[in-house]
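fyi for ur records
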Amino acid sequence: MGASETGRMTVATLLALGRVSNLPTVWTNCLAGAMLAGGGSSPWSVALAALALSLFYCGGMFLNDAFDRDVDAIERPQRPIPSGRASAAAVYAIGAAQLAAGLVVLALVTRAVGGRVDVALGSGAALAIAVVAYDATHRATALSPWLMAACRALVYACAATATTATPAWPAVWPAAAGLAAYTAGITYVSRVEASGRASRAWPVALLLAAPIILLASARSATDPRAWYALAAVAWIFHALRFATRSHDPNVPGGVMRLIAGMCVLDAAWIAGTESVAGAMLAGIAVVGVPVTRLLQRRVAGS
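which gave:
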């Protein structure tokens, strides 16, 4: 990659390649993973973990554009590579560098909190492998939604590892499983984006798995997890309305709303930690929904 190739990229091009409009969902994923693991009391560790996971996310998005450049040249010629705003070589190099930087930051913050660096490196490497596997094969395999699901579940795992020395894994895994199902549901809906309306009903079951897990784990009707879960259900059907309407279906609009809805699920798990900090941070996480939607209007999220 020559310096001139990188230099020709504008800030707007870099933001588009990284799909930064969806980053608030990564940050709330990170916060939820940290709170569930018992490490949310250290703001600096959560912030650094969020930085690491943002690097993983943006690196994966860069690589996605690089791998998809030939298809994008036909279906989405306005994307940075086919439009000539970025070279494939530069995008590959920057994407790989971001994944490597994310792994380094993840290991450093884990070491700083007294956690197991080997576990951090293992979870980070697994995330990087899942990201690259998805980017390289998602158009060729029916398993691609589950590769994307693994990516989001591993965000919870990485956040848990990086923010506390002894993560409470039994609290993390159900949330990670719910997030994985939700992500797979989004990905199945998005696969019909080029062909028309998202008419299949079965991905809805995947989207609703996380709210169902939350409702099942609620201790009473006043448990905040139950209320956030119901809010998530309402948002899911609001988003699906755009993708499934009979007149002028808007699958991309529905998908973008579903991505933003991850923040509500994160808020539910955060609120379920039953602490004053959890109640406050859950409210902050919910704000991620309108923030993500606002950013998606400025920078394409898919």
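The domain at 3-298 is CATH 1.10.357.140 (Tetracycline Repressor; domain 2). thats all i got for now
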